[in-house]
Write a structure and sequence with these properties.
This protein is α/β, with parallel strands linked by helices and 260 residues long. It is 34% helix and 23% strand. The protein is built from 9 helices and 10 strands. Strand 4 and strand 5 form a beta hairpin.
Length: 260
């Protein structure tokens, strides 16, 4: 499903946090959204999902303008964080709730989740524990999996790899690649992990101060290019003489005994 962002601006307390004149995401594209904290990633996702009101602009999901109708919601699934969860439900109850919200047959998630059962490693399903009693990593798994079980046409995930252990991160990347390949869904994923995002996304967008500053197709060089882009500058606080003294001192093998 195609997504179009047109002349969008969002302002909080007099500060512009999002300014995107034009963005087109083709149906079936997998998009990786990258940026430092406060760059506007989550704000853009919230705007696409009509969770915030915009100062200017329009966002279309397919033929639907998202703030004017709810028809696009039936084929859109998202997980933006633990505020999407219902803490007094078990995982099974939450999956039932999400499935019924999307009009799926009652209990249909049980068949769909069979291919993902190893993802939970017997720590979530069948335990009788409420979501609030789970670890952050397991809560993350429930939220991400609930969005994927819908088998949507549009999937939006904000930092889905956060709090997951290494095995779960690897499994999730494989699940996302399979879902995209078999269902041809439009996928938008944000992450601070440059390696993860280049493994699951075909197109990379970099946000900075609410603006898209880089938009490129993934290549073999993308990961190195991203590392270079986000590499922290060398500190400028030392003058030349201080830098030379520091280098001499750090390179010395001599130890000075303290005065006691």
């Amino acid at each position: 499903m195609q997504i179009s962002v047109k002349s969008v601006r969002k302002i909080y307390t007099g500060i512009e946090v999002l300014n995107i004149p034009h963005l087109e995401i083709a149906s079936g594209e997998s998009i990786g959204l990258i940026g430092n904290n406060g760059a506007g990633k989550t704000t853009l996702f919230r705007a696409i999902l009509d969770l915030i009101a915009l100062e200017e602009g329009q966002i279309f999901s397919g033929e639907y303008e998202v703030s004017s109708t709810e028809k696009w919601k039936k084929y859109t699934a998202a997980y933006l964080g633990q505020e999407f969860l219902i803490p007094f439900l078990t995982a099974e109850e939450y999956f039932d709730f999400v499935s019924q919200t999307y009009g799926l047959p009652k209990g249909s998630w049980q068949e769909r989740i069979k291919k993902y059962e190893g993802f939970f490693r017997h720590e979530v399903l069948g335990t009788g524990r409420y979501l609030r009693e789970l670890s952050r990593g397991n809560m993350q798994k429930v939220g991400v999996m609930a969005a994927m079980l819908i088998e949507p046409k549009v999937l939006i995930l904000d930092e889905p790899f956060a709090s997951l252990d290494p095995s779960s991160q690897i499994n999730l990347k494989e699940f996302l690649r399979q879902l995209h390949q078999t269902q041809n869904i439009t996928m938008l994923i944000s992450s601070h992990d440059l390696g993860h995002i280049t493994e699951v996304a075909e197109r990379i967008l970099i946000l900075d101060d609410g603006k898209i500053v880089k938009d490129q197709a993934r290549t073999e060089e993308t990961l190195n290019e991203l590392h270079n882009y986000f590499k922290a500058p060398k500190p400028q606080s030392l003058n030349d003489n201080q830098s030379e003294d520091f280098e001499k001192l750090s390179g010395s093998n001599e130890l000075t005994e303290p005065n006691l």
